[in-house]
Design goal:
The protein is α+β, with helices and mostly antiparallel strands and 76 residues long. It has one domain. The protein is built from 1 helix and 5 strands, in the order H-E-E-E-E-E. It has a 3-stranded antiparallel beta sheet, with no helix packed on it. Strand 4 and strand 5 form a beta hairpin. The longest helix has 20 residues. The protein is rod-shaped.
């Protein structure tokens, strides 16, 4: 009896593993082409001093300082 339950359990595990291996884990709720960048509106770039528009990707640089994604800190 123990051998039967061991085989049945292993079969169930194999079936579940196969289902997981072929499952589709893509995100269906996210529209195609949506980026994964941060967008802030009304903030000023800490590096260049220009306003960051809502359409421009931005990143956080330090404590509450926002910068344009492609903006680099000026050399001194």
């Amino acid at each position: 009896m123990v051998m039967f339950w061991g085989v049945a359990a292993q079969t169930a595990i194999n079936i579940e593993s196969t289902e997981l291996a072929t499952a589709d884990f893509t995100e269906r709720e996210r529209p195609t082409g949506e980026d994964h960048e941060l967008h802030v509106e009304g903030k000023v770039c800490a590096y260049c001093g220009k306003a960051i528009l809502a359409s421009q990707p931005a990143r956080l640089a330090g404590e509450g300082s926002w910068v344009h994604e492609g903006c680099h800190k000026p050399r001194r």
